[in-house]
Amino acid sequence: GAFATNGYMPHGAGTDAKGMGGVGIALPSGGMAPASNPAAQMYVGNKLTFGMDWFRPFRSATRLLVNTDNTYRDSGSNDFFIPEFGYARPMGSSSSLGVVVYGAGLGVDYGAVWQNVGTTNTYMLLKLMTIAPTWATKVGNHSFGVSLNLVRENFDVRGLENFDVASQSRYVGNTTGKGEDSASGIGVKLGWMGELTPSLSMGATIQPQTSMSKFGKYKGLLAEQGKADVPAQYGLGLAFKATPATVVGFDVVKIKWSGVKSFANTTPAVANSGLVVAGAALGDDNGAGFGWKDQTVYKLGVSHQLGKWTLRAGYNYGKTPVQADQTFFNTLAPAVTETHYTLGASWAVSNSTDISLAYMYSPSNEVKGTGTSASMTNPDLKMNQNSFGIALNVKM
User: Fold this and answer.
1) Per the structure, how many domains does the chain have?
2) Are strands 295-306 and 246-256 parallel, antiparallel or unpaired?
3) Which domain CATH number covers 328?
4) Is there a domain that residue 5 lies in?
5) In a domain, 167, yes or no
6) Is the pLDDT reported for residue 376 higher than 70?
7) 74-111, pLDDT tens digit by residue?
8) Is residue 4 in a domain?
9) Which pTM was predicted?
10) Residue whose C-alpha is closest to residue 361's, from 334, 385, 336
């Protein structure tokens, strides 16, 4: 679903991490921990995890069109339900095998025609689901893990009919309104976690760019004939045990949107006619894209044990990848939120079962486009978000 928080990535992986601002590279918690760092697989134990995130983003664009209303159009698709699943099984005392399943993505449903751009209501949805079989091993105070990321993407877009012409698109008939298309790819994620002292842990993750197959139905819209690779991500984390009951975690994650042409390619200044071509057609290797910049995401979280309860809070900040002179196409992908505040808790129902809850609030942020009221170039984009997560962890 449309759960863009750090670009199109969620602010964290798993309900426990989401309650701590997304922290998880050096602070493993819950059965979804290997999604943050494959090395965390060693700390999960024998566990089964089911979870669901209810995500509510509110998005709008000010169209800045000649002789038309200048109002916000709130996106109609405001409820998304994103499942998570994890299973871990120790293989003796020094290694562990498991799998985690998690999602990402973004989209809009404006319920209105984008004037000068299309003849049907504007809609876009990009969904990603990752199934990650994971193996980890422990050597002394250091654990090492590797995940095989089996990624499935689904993409659908409507309402861009004016671009489905030879002057705009390299592949007319494969630009808009073709229904949902899917792509797949296989990637890898490597992780390390080390206990440097009894109270200080450190972790690191490397995830190279995942090459995806092409969306054939939309090869005339997305750059590289409909290709949307998953960007490379690199992370570093620290966890400090302030008291026996209190742990503070800090992560920094770099998301390399610049390596994915459909997201990184810029859109030239758009003329009043709505043409985006400047030497390249839509669908070309250098065809117009979202113009996203790389992101550095900072995550800070705290966890405190209180009897059968574990209480969590966190903060997550990542400057939007959306640039002020690139808001035209980002009307479809208004990933403009930057600051996220989170709360979370787990309750040990029994020795073998606990229930986790998480809440995230991202206040409204706006990217003011460089457009003027006399042009249709770059609208202003706004978004705020709430999400509620629940997960069940069962020791097997």
Assistant:
1) 1
2) antiparallel
3) 2.40.160.60
4) no
5) yes
6) no
7) 556 678 889 999 999 999 999 999 999 999 998 888 88
8) no
9) 0.93
10) 385
